[in-house]
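Re: that chain you flagged

S.,

Sorry for the slow reply, it's been a week of failed gels. I finally had a moment to sit down with the sequence you sent. For the record, here it is as I used it:
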Amino acid sequence: MGMVGTASTPSPNEKGFDNCAMMTAKMTSAAAQIEFPSLDFPGRTTLYPHECALRLGCHVDHIYDLIEEGILRGINIAGGNNLTDRRCVRIPIEAWRAFLAARVTA
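Prediction finished late last night. Pasting the structure tokens below so you have them in one place:
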């Protein structure tokens, strides 16, 4: 019989740690690819629309308009397709970064 926790068989916690470390490394490398780091939110997974508005220097209504037009992707955490309930809208960091990358001018 083999010993539990030997080097040849990682424990479930070690596997989870490896996955977490890999995800963190991917997020860090994605943040490093942002051309304007001042517009990024390091370590975040979702954003509030008012945070995005502050970073861009625009009104939060403009952020909601971008979401409703499909230009900036958002998630309604209350469920359903109604993105007009503004208290329940979140923006995934990947959507925020894609939005910025698509709008960088030469």
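What I noticed first: The beta strands are 46-47, 75-76, 89-92.

Talk soon,
D.
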